[in-house]
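Dear colleague,

As promised, here are the two records you asked about, laid out in our usual form so they can be pasted straight into your sheet.

NAME FIELD: protein one
SEQUENCE, THEN STRUCTURE:
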Amino acid sequence: MIRHVVLFQFTDDTTVEQIDDYERSLVDYVATLDGVESYRIGRDARINPGTYDFSVIAEFADEAAFRAYFDGARHKEIQRNTAAMIAAKASSQSRYE
């Protein structure tokens, strides 16, 4: 299994509507793919200062399923369409049983 974790910090001028659209586009995209075991999106609870605004934690059956997601044309399109609203991003992929 592959676990993909991504944290996003949005620009100050990003609207709630833009974030809603971003989330919807990711969820709709993932629904078209095989091998996605889990896909969770979270918005920061504002409990501590200095945290990221948005997170994705996704689990894939194998590396091929992750690659299909990450390298997919729709994923690249979503990235292009939302690049201006993302101020910072951190990600990690890990293998687990």
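NAME FIELD: protein two
SEQUENCE, THEN STRUCTURE:
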Amino acid sequence: MSNNLVDELLPVRAPLVSQAAAAIRTRIKTGRWQLGDQLPSEPQLATELGISRGTLRESVRLLISNGLLDRRHGVGTFVARVPRELPSIDRGIDELFGATDAIAQMGYAPGVGTCEITLERASSVVAGELRLPKQARVCHIKRVRMADERPVILCEDYLPADVLVERRIRVEDVRTQILARGGSLYEWLEQDIGRPIDTALTRIEPVVATASTARSLDVEPGTALLRLRQTHYGMDGTEILYSDNLHNSNVMHFHVVRRRPRPTF
């Protein structure tokens, strides 16, 4: 393994903190540090990874929050558990988060597998969700999101083609722009399109992987998946984006905090 983070094979444009966390995870997974071992000192490890001590502290905090590391004040940082073969990402379903943030905040390196952009006529479902005329043209963005180079989400997103026309963005440039944002559609919409997402109405349902979906997510056909269909709105309540995403339920886990209603008098 390389002694410098820059030389290691990590997803393109993953945030440096996420890359550092992924590098530490890899060292634990490959047995360099065993369960209960103490990590090298902060200056030594920062030098080894070729990053600043501030970046290292942030990456260590990510891994502590994920239960991989344990910091003992006045002593050092220790390996608290060995990562499983598959990534494990757990988020509250009441949070509106992008895949990039969800993956990175759990200490994995986010990336993009395939990314295909097409202009097409909206289906009745897409047109209805975005309140578009029948057969209106939409930009269809199909991506496979990766965590530590493992496919975890198959994303199919749709936005009105008129948005690209307004911003004078050619469809052939969309892929490059999205990848330049680390694969984050939310970042692209906010920074390049000027349409930040504020809220989303989400519908969740269990489905099984078709042969085509199984190939995209590297699972067996018939594997249980979680389907999230989301209509995204801007701050003014305008429909911006419709998403139909399939999550590998062996990797992506969602939870919600439920409270009993309080009596009213």
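A couple of things worth noting about protein two: The radius of gyration is 20 Å. The CA atoms of residues 173 and 227 lie 28 Å apart.

Best,
R.
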